[in-house]
Design a protein that fits this description.
- It contains 5 helices and 5 strands; from the N terminus they run E-E-H-E-E-E-H-H-H-H.
- The chain folds into 2 domains: 76 residues, Beta-grasp domain (Ubiquitin-like (UB roll), Roll), CATH 3.10.20.30; 66 residues, [2Fe-2S]-binding domain (DNA polymerase, domain 1), CATH 1.10.150.120.
- Helix 4 runs antiparallel to helix 5.
- It is of the alpha+beta class.
- A hairpin with a 2-residue loop joins strand 3 and strand 4.
- Helix content is 32%, strand content 16%.
- Bound molecules: FE2/S2 (inorganic) cluster (2 copies).
């Protein structure tokens, strides 16, 4: 099958690569770039596990062909911490026990990071997480608590952590 050359900026690094037209962005991230923190569950847009941020917006990478992402900026869970310091939402999920097996967690983190950048309030964000991410383990109670904690700690815009974990 004829391959196409695409260019992406992933977690700040420019990449140029050849992909088949049928390659999903989720597969490119995991198999070609080794970014296996982006999990794949349903492969049909239902579970949210594969969520990454594309050009500032949370998107399900299993629903996007790699060629459609040509010239995009992509952020994955591997790029969320800065200089070894976790993002506020990562710290809150940890501290509030907002994960168990962790399969859904990278996708949830990416949606929360995007919500924090858009300045969404905690209630709107919780509703979006409940609608858009399936978690088989937690029952969502502690995920909701983590969102409250992150938003409270940072005054509603938890773009960066000041909780000190990871320093
Ligand atoms: S794997 Fe993409 S939404 Fe489930
Ligand atoms: S923590 Fe296991 S699926 Fe969410």
């Amino acid at each position: 099958m004829k391959e196409h050359r695409i260019r992406l900026k992933v977690n700040g690094d420019e990449s140029e690569m050849a992909v088949e037209p049928r390659t999903l962005l989720s597969d490119l991230l995991r198999n070609q770039l080794g970014l296996t923190g982006t999990h794949v569950g349903c492969e049909q847009g239902a579970c949210g596990a594969c969520t990454v941020i594309i050009d500032g917006k949370p998107q399900r990478s299993c629903l996007i062909l790699a060629v459609q992402a040509d010239e995009s900026t992509v952020e994955t869970i591997e790029g969320v911490a800065e200089d070894g310091i976790e993002h506020a939402v990562q710290i809150s999920l940890h501290q509030q026990h907002g994960l168990q097996c962790g399969f859904c967690t990278p996708g949830i983190v990416m949606s929360l990071v995007a919500a924090s950048r858009y300045g969404r309030d905690a209630e709107t964000t919780k509703a979006q997480i409940l609608e858009g991410h399936l978690c088989r383990c937690t029952g969502y109670v502690n995920i909701r608590a983590a969102i409250d904690a992150a938003w409270e700690t940072t005054g509603g815009g938890p773009e960066r952590s000041d909780l000190g974990v990871g320093e």
